[in-house]
Amino acid sequence: MSASTLLPDGRSVGIATDLLELLSVTVAVIDGVIVGPGVAVRPEIDRVSAVARERWSGCLPSEIEPLQEARRLYRSVGIPPTRIRPSSEALLRRVLHGHDLYSISNAVDACNLASLTFLLPVGLYDLDKISGDTVLRLGCPGEEYPGIRKGPVHLEGRLGLFDDEGPFGSPTSDSSRTCVDETTTRLLAVVMATAGYPGEELERAAALLSRCLCDYCGGTVASYARLGKS
Questions:
Q1: Mean pLDDT, residues 74-100
Q2: Which residues share a beta bridge with 2?
Q3: Residues with Cβ < 8 Å from 151, sequence gap 6 or more?
Q4: How sure is the predictor about 151, in pLDDT bands with cuts at 50, 70 and 90?
Q5: In whole angstroms, what separates CA 148 from the centre of its chain?
Q6: Separation CA 140–CA 15 (nearest Å)
Q7: Does pLDDT of 230 surpass 80?
Q8: 223, 147, 137: which is closest to 188 by C-alpha?
Q9: How many Å from the N-terminal Cα to the C-terminal Cα in the chain?
Q10: Could you tell me if 171 and 123 are in contact, meaning their C-beta atoms sit under 8 angstroms apart?
Q11: Beta bridge partner(s), residue 152
Q12: Closest CA to 166 of 188, 121, 134, 141
């Protein structure tokens, strides 16, 4: 593994030096996707949701072992996961409360399906809306971005993905600036975990995410890398 990887277009995605000992991250580019309605994804989301309800209904989040890695990720950088929830925990909580996941598009729904399956935070972005190189680092005072369907996402002291224009993503919520829509043809997909998370488990999660995106949106994996401590 390494601290950064080059994408097919020559841009880089990397982890800040001070976080390299703490994080393990996969980065994939899915090229040639066609984004549209998520109808085809819904039956599998419903199936995985039903399995989750049968297995964990009535359990506290602290009692659900697969959720704990996302919480460890937050604690590793000083973020309290009981106050700021990882995106994967937010998905599972919604399901366990008896609600369906929102249907956004085949790409976003496929991403949510994968995250609900392995319960790690996933970021999904339109690669062509990202400006320059990307780094995963802690936010500085005043750094924030407009969230999707919500107010500002504040990143001071929190994990975030940053490009030449500023922050555009985090393991909590993605931004409106780089959101996936029907004009998207290239996806950047990021799965986040701690450095102590088993590498083979992270590889399996990343492979499932890529497979879901390709199966439901078309396209192919143009590049893939796992970043972190070597």
A1: 95
A2: 227
A3: none
A4: confident
A5: 14
A6: 16
A7: no
A8: 223
A9: 5
A10: yes
A11: 146
A12: 134
User: How many degrees, rounded to 5, is the angle at CA 73 between CA 60 and CA 167?
Assistant: 115
Helix/strand/coil for 156: strand
d(CA 73, CA 80): 10
In the chain the domains, ranked by start, together with CATH numbers, are 4-228 (3.50.40.10)
Kindly report, residue by residue over 165-175, the tens digit of the pLDDT.
Answer: 999 999 999 89
Extract the tokens encoding 97: 């409360």
- Two tokens at 5? 């990887």
Burial 161-179 (b: 16+ CB within 10 A, else e): bbbeeebbbbbbbbbebbb
pTM above 0.85, yes or no: yes
| DSSP helix/strand/coil, 77 | coil
Cβ–Cβ under 8 Å, residues 31 and 186 = yes
Placement of tokens 């931004």 in the chain: 175
